[in-house]
Amino acid sequence: MSWLRAIAVSVVVSLCIAASPAFASSSFRIVDLTMRDGVTLKGNVFTPDTPGRYPAILFITSWALPSVEYFVQAQKFADAGYVVVSYTPRGFYTSGGFIETAGPKDIADLSQVIDWTLAQTPSDPARIGAAGVSYGAGMSLIGAAFDSRIRAVAALSCWTDLPYSLFSHQTRHLQSAGLLGLSAELTGKPSAELQQALSNFFANQNLDSVIAYAQVRSAATYLDRLNANRPAILLGNAYGDSFFGPNQLTGFFTQLAGPKRLELRPGDHAIPELTGILGLPNDAWTSTRRWFDQYLRGVNTGIATENPVQLQLRGQSTYESFPSWSAISTSTARYNLSEVHWWSNEGDLTAGSQAAWNKTLVAGDTVANGGVALLTNGAEAITGEPISAWIPAVDRLNGAVWQSDWLSSPQRVRGAPHLRLTVTPGSSGQTTVIAYLYDTDWAGTGSLITHVAVTLRNAVAGQPYAVDVDFPATAYDVPIGHRLSLVVDTADPLYADKAPAFSSVKLSSSSSSPSYVSLPLK
Question: CA–CA separation, 352 vs 483, rounded Å?
Answer without folding.
Answer: 16
